[in-house]
Amino acid sequence: MSLTAHIPSHRKPRRNAPKTALRAGVAGGVLSTIAVAGAAGPAQAEPVTQTIEMPTITAGLSTAVAASAQATQQVAQDLQTQAQEDAAAATAAKTAKKAKAEAVRKAEAKKKAEAAAKAKAEAAERASRSTARTTLSATSGSSTGTAASTSSSSSSATGSAAAVIAFAQAQVGDAYVPGGTGPNSWDCSGLVQAAFRSVNIDLPRVSQSQSTAGTQVSLSNLQPGDILYWGGAGSAYHVGIYVGNGQFVGAQNSSTGVVQRPLSYDPPSGAVRVL
Description:
single chain, endopeptidase fold (from Nostoc punctiforme), rod-shaped, two-stranded parallel ribbon
């Protein structure tokens, strides 16, 4: 027997039976509801579907691809333009080089032609002079005879004409030098100019002008002191002084120098009279 068998119970008696019954009824109703819901739940459940939208990247990718394509096309155009410019520059350089070579070729051809023409003219002059020398040798005789002829040729001249002739004859034997104006070397027009200057007559410096400095006269009517010219009046290439008796004095060329010769040595084209 427990120690508490005779101790009156202190448990409180149930106060209200109806309240207990109410609680039991509520609990039973809840359980019934849960049971009904549990039985009906699996049969009526629907699957849950969820759609996940992925971010759209098509637009951005298209823009990047388009930009890349445009850049590539621009580079290709730049390369093509550069290639065209390089080709044009190369063509221009080639054309300029060809034009320069052609100009040089023409200049050289012209120079050769001028040299050939000059050589031909000199050869013709030498041939003419050679023929004249042969004639002179046959007609002039010894040097003593030449001196006598010179003396007689000047005896018919008087006044300024005699002075001009004397000056010219005094230079016989001097050297011929292109552009020479004395006192020991002359060219043809330099000698004529100096001879007339000795009598205070100023003539032009060159043959072309001296050939028109006076009155044109016929070769059949020459007088001592007349200026002889070779070539056309105004375009003469050589001049000399007529000293009478069919002879003249002139600075002929570098091989002969200043000489006195008959007109047949080198027949002149015309004459002018200044005195």
